[in-house]
Amino acid sequence: MRSVAEYLERAAEFEALAATATVDVLKKRYGDIAACYRLLAKEREWLIGTGAIEGQQPIDGQQAEGLRN
User: Fold this and answer.
1) Would you state the pLDDT for residue 1?
2) Is 28 helix (H, G, I), strand (E, B) or coil?
3) Looking at per-residue confidence, does 21 or 56 come out higher?
4) Percent of the chain predicted with pLDDT > 70
5) How far apart are CA 12 and CA 26, in angstroms?
6) What is the spatial distance between Cα 32 and Cα 59, in angstroms, rounded to a whole number?
7) What are the boundaries of each domain within the chain?
8) Cα 59 from Cα 61, distance rounded (Å)
9) What is the pLDDT of residues 25-42, one digit of tens each?
10) Cα separation of 13 and 33, whole Å?
11) What is the b/e burial string over 3-35, where b = at least 16 CB atoms within 10 angstroms of the residue's CB?
12) Does residue 56 have a pLDDT over 90?
């Protein structure tokens, strides 16, 4: 699972791709993907706000350590 910041970062990457795309179909597709990432960020932020999920997930090493204990 990604953080809100990671979703927004990916959205920005696809927005940049859309801005530089010369093929209209790709420009639209990249824009749509960016919008999806923004929606995921908004949904995750809402879930964190309601307490349904935690805001930060442990890094991989900490997850593995937790599984061993």
Assistant:
1) 61
2) helix
3) 21
4) 78
5) 16
6) 29
7) 4-62
8) 6
9) 999 999 999 999 999 999
10) 10
11) ebeebbebbeebbebbeeeeeeeeeeebbebbe
12) no
CA–CA distance, 3 with 12 (Å, rounded to integer): 14
Distance between alpha carbon 7 and the CA centroid of its chain, in Å?
2
Residue type, 51: G
| pLDDT value of position 17 | 98
Who's near 18: CB < 8 A, 6+ residues apart?
Answer: 26, 27, 28, 30, 31, 34
Q: Residue 37: its pLDDT value, please? A: 97
DSSP letters spanning 2-63: --HHHHHHHHHHHHHHHHH--SHHHHHHHHHHHHHHHHHHHHHHHHHHHTSS-SSPPPHHHH
